[in-house]
Amino acid sequence: MVSFYLIRSRNDLIEISALKDIIPGEGLKLKEIHYMDDNPDKGLKWDLDAGEVRFSGDKKSMFFNEFRLSLESENRPWFKLKGNEGSYSRDSGEIHLSGNLEGLSENGYSIITEHILINEKSGQLSAQGAVKIRGPYLSVEGKGLFVDLEKETLKVLSDVTTTVEKGFVI
User: Fold this and answer.
1) Inside any domain, residue 170
2) Is the separation of the CB atoms in 94 and 117 below 8 Å?
3) Which pLDDT belongs to residue 8?
């Protein structure tokens, strides 16, 4: 049996194309979903497309795989990221993403890493492992990453190699 639903709760909109399983004590498991969170108080809008999503029984957490995530913040370039799996906690405002992560920003920068933590409450993003960033005239590789979206700062934390191409102006 395949069912189609459109669910709206507060500022969240969930489009569900196929209802698969309700797991007793664990919550709802869905296939091929589109989830949007657009709460102006958080300052960060995000859209998630995922192959599978599972919501915790208390509806405070969601777990997803084979995803594409789009992030938009006021007055900042958009950022799109795809990867293997992730989770989101309403209580902490943390989004954990992992597995062959590839990202692209509106201003032409790309990132490749294995794990990213986004804290929507603080507007910060971090990664602990190897990171490769490429952009116009510049590439940076290293270990660890810290991004403050509000201050518009980015730091690669250690073992940094930077390549600057001809034509780059500071």
Assistant:
1) no
2) yes
3) 40
3-state secondary structure of 41: coil
Write out pLDDT tens, residues 26-44.
677 889 988 887 766 666 6
Closest CA to 125 of 155, 99, 102, 104: 155
Specify whether the CB–CB gap between 17 and 32 falls below 8 A: yes
Asked if residue 111 belongs to a domain, the reply is yes
Q: Name beta bridge partners: 142.
A: 131
pTM: 0.76
Residue 58 DSSP code: T
- The verdict on residue 37 lying in a domain is yes
Structural domains counted in the chain? 1
- The answer as to whether 80 is a domain residue is yes
Instruction: Yes or no: say if 133 and 142 are a contact pair by the CB < 8 Å rule.
Output: no
Q: Does the pLDDT at position 169 exceed 50?
A: yes
